[in-house]
């Protein structure tokens, strides 16, 4: 099996767009472990988690739920000053903002647009040109300028949008009365002994460069703006500890997964990814995957090429980074190939 992993990783790093990459594979108890490194990127090197950060935000929401401090059915407006979110979800001349729930945000079923990828003020394109800071209030304003895709809870509809998790981050801070970085630390990093995982806030906090094709970009201000939706830093070794705890019940009662595994397809640009309650699912069998494999991958990937997935069929965890934001699908394809070859 390790020989197949070697071959897959070797083919990956032959691409001219891959300048550095790292891969770590383990089973639950750790008696099987495989690693491969390229371009100076080791399993202890810092990497930008991008949207894998959403798993941290999901964890905090689930812990607060266990503590009885929120329900997934709670209305989002409960946690905000009146007027701040007014007009956020105006669909076909009807206001749905007051109907949005925490579950709508967690499951990406709010219908809200994604300012990172949509509209003339598409943040992804703007950030490629220059670094920028953007506040949650500015994100909300930009979202209000775009049209939602559907009413909340529309049957079989989901639409991936960072704003869903940006708002969840605000709810976490509202409930706890603490900063998101402190909540991440007390709920996740300290209990798991993660010493190199953090949410950057100061000038001294290291933020890795991101490759876009052949250009290594430094975007510290923007990364610090992403926070709950994509701003965390970790290492592959520590992400392995976290992803095992996330799916293994080390942070919250894993019995909640029977409520979270209600998957819906995302917009076509995310195919074949589906979304559940705070995490992704990639089916490996059926016509859509040309009957390539069995089971599913569950976890999350990031737009910069980071990934952290669990493959229950073989009890394997895949963690790594290809660091190429020009083609985020590279990480997904790598994870699929690893699972199918296992």
Automatic annotation (TrEMBL):
Molecular function GO terms recorded: hydrolase activity
Key words of the record: Hydrolase
Cross-referenced InterPro entries: AmpC-like (IPR050491), Beta-lactam-related (IPR001466), Beta-lactam/transpept-like (IPR012338)
Domain Beta-lactamase-related: start-end pairs: 44-333
Taxonomic placement: Bacteria, Bacillati, Bacillota, Bacilli, Bacillales
UniProt key word Glycoprotein: no
Name of the protein in its database record: Serine hydrolase
Hydrolase as UniProt keyword: yes
Species, as recorded: Sporosarcina highlanderae
SUPFAM superfamilies in the record: beta-lactamase/transpeptidase-like (SSF56601)
Pfam families in the cross-refs: Beta-lactamase
Gene3D superfamilies, sorted: DD-peptidase/beta-lactamase superfamily
């Amino acid at each position: 099996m390790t020989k197949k992993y070697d071959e897959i990783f070797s083919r990956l790093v032959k691409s001219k767009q891959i300048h550095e990459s790292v891969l770590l594979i383990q089973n639950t108890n750790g008696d099987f472990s495989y690693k491969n490194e390229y371009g100076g990127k080791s399993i202890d090197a810092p990497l930008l988690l991008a949207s894998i950060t959403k798993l941290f935000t999901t964890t905090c929401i689930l812990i607060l739920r266990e503590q009885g401090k929120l329900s997934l059915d709670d209305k989002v407006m409960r946690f905000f000053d009146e007027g701040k979110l007014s007009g956020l979800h105006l669909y076909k001349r009807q206001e749905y903002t007051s109907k949005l729930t925490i579950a709508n945000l967690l499951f990406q079923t709010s219908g809200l647009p994604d300012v990172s990828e949509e509209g003339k003020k598409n943040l992804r394109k703007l950030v490629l040109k220059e670094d920028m800071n953007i506040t949650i209030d500015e994100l909300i304003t930009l979202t209000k300028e775009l049209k939602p895709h559907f009413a909340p809870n529309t049957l079989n509809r989901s639409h991936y949008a960072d704003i869903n998790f940006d708002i969840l981050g605000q709810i976490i801070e509202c409930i706890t009365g603490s900063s998101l970085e402190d909540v991440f630390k007390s709920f996740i990093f300290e209990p798991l002994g993660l010493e190199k995982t953090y949410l950057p806030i100061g000038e001294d906090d290291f933020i890795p460069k991101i490759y876009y094709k052949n250009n290594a970009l430094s975007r510290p201000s923007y990364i610090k703006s992403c926070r709950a939706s994509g701003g965390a830093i970790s290492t592959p070794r520590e992400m392995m500890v976290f992803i095992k705890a996330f799916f293994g019940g080390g942070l919250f009662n894993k019995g909640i997964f029977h409520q979270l595994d209600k998957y819906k397809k995302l917009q076509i640009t995310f195919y074949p990814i589906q979304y559940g309650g705070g995490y992704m699912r990639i089916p490996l069998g059926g016509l859509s995957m040309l009957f390539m494999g069995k089971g599913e991958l569950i976890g999350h990937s990031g737009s910069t090429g980071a990934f952290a997935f669990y493959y229950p069929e073989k009890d394997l965890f895949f963690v790594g980074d290809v660091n190429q934001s020009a083609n985020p699908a590279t990480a997904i394809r790598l994870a699929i190939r690893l699972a199918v070859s296992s």
